[in-house]
Amino acid sequence: MAIQKPSIPKGTRDFGQADMSRRNYIFDTIRSVFRTFGYQEIQTPSMENLSTLLGKYGEEGDKLLFRILNSGDAFANVDSSKPLTPQVCEKGLRYDLTVPFARYVVQHQNEISFPFKRFQIQPVWRADRPQKGRYREFYQCDVDVIGSRSQVNELELVQMVDAVFGKLGVRVKIHINNRKVLTGIAEIADAPDKVVDITVAIDKLDKIGLEKVKEEMAEKGIPAEGIAVIEKILSLQGSSADKIGAMKALFESSETGLKGLEELQELFGLIEAAGVKAPVEMDLSLARGLNYYTGAIFEVKAQDWEIGSICGGGRYDNLTGIFGLPDLSGVGISFGADRIYDVLTGLELFPAALEQSTKLLFAVMGADELRYVLPLAKALREAGVAVEVYPEATKLKKQFDYAQKKAIPFISINGSSEIEAGSVNLKNLVSGEQKAFPANDINSILDFLS
Prior knowledge:
- It contains 17 helices and 16 strands.
- The protein is α+β, with helices and mostly antiparallel strands.
- The protein has an eight-stranded mixed beta sheet with strand order 1-5-6-11-10-9-7-8.
- Helix 1 (17-36) packs antiparallel against helix 6 (152-168), helix 1 (17-36) packs across helix 13 (337-346) and helix 7 runs antiparallel to helix 12.
- The longest helix has 20 residues, at 17-36.
- The chain is elongated and about 90 Å long.
């Protein structure tokens, strides 16, 4: 049989021990912040019914869904006169965590209390073209509250972003817009039926530039006069208050647009009152291409590392209505763990201590020495110290090399003399300091290892 070269699908990655230590550092930091705001964790299945997923992410999003073939012979009873995919695929891998969350809320509405505050840290899948910072399988860290229209919830999302990246040491800028404002832009551009086309085009401003955005809108049938109005809005400069003031005059004919500006004005006032440290900007080019957003929308970018958004989300008023529970407003934000990992790696912000999993290695000289150190290893583990006992009696150099490769800072070498004296010998491999302690003096041993 031919030897097969091992490989993994493009857009996916293996994570070794050091990688997992770093990833768990991110997840633990995010979890700790979520919990301080009263959010609790849930999980949903990796796969959902396609009927749950389709139509929630826009036409482009639907194309990126990974579909799962039905079990058994999926093609056994195919009707050639009908579209193939719906006949052979009933399920798909989740595209994000928000739509499954909405499904969960409706399905479990009699078991939960509203407003319902939850967070979720799980992988999602998108059939995208792999490139730097863009993967086909990646983790999202979502935090949502549903059942309240108060913009205090939006404020809390901004505060959590500020707190998470403050703990991680990453300088970020928080970009905020409002989908009602985008609806207002479509209305004053005399293209009220082209909201989706306009938002999809505007959302690409950073990637393709203003001229290409204008070309795309023209191709979608936006009138030239309307495109000129949109260009004027996208070119507004100054503070958030300046932009809101300038747009109020433009939005006189759009009730929806004015409502969006009022919401933004209230939110920016709350952010200022709360003392958020990270810079927050009203970004009129921010559209967030997902169709389910209806109010405030957020995007977070690292200031010191070139990569796409590392966090994003927004307000949605109608998502649960699709599943039979109307008029339940929610708002949430998602932390892109994989991109955050890349930023922390690039800026060398991971704590050095993460590389160290084991604190102390007991070297083994023989069977008697092994039996001697086993109770001590047990006692230290019970005291919370990560301890390894080398599994074989082999050359000390090999055991020292093992400790060095794993960045284990302490080693204990004990022979017949230590057994007779009832002592334990400890060496700090970083400083070279070496001491002997009574084997039953756990507190002194702990002090040396600290």
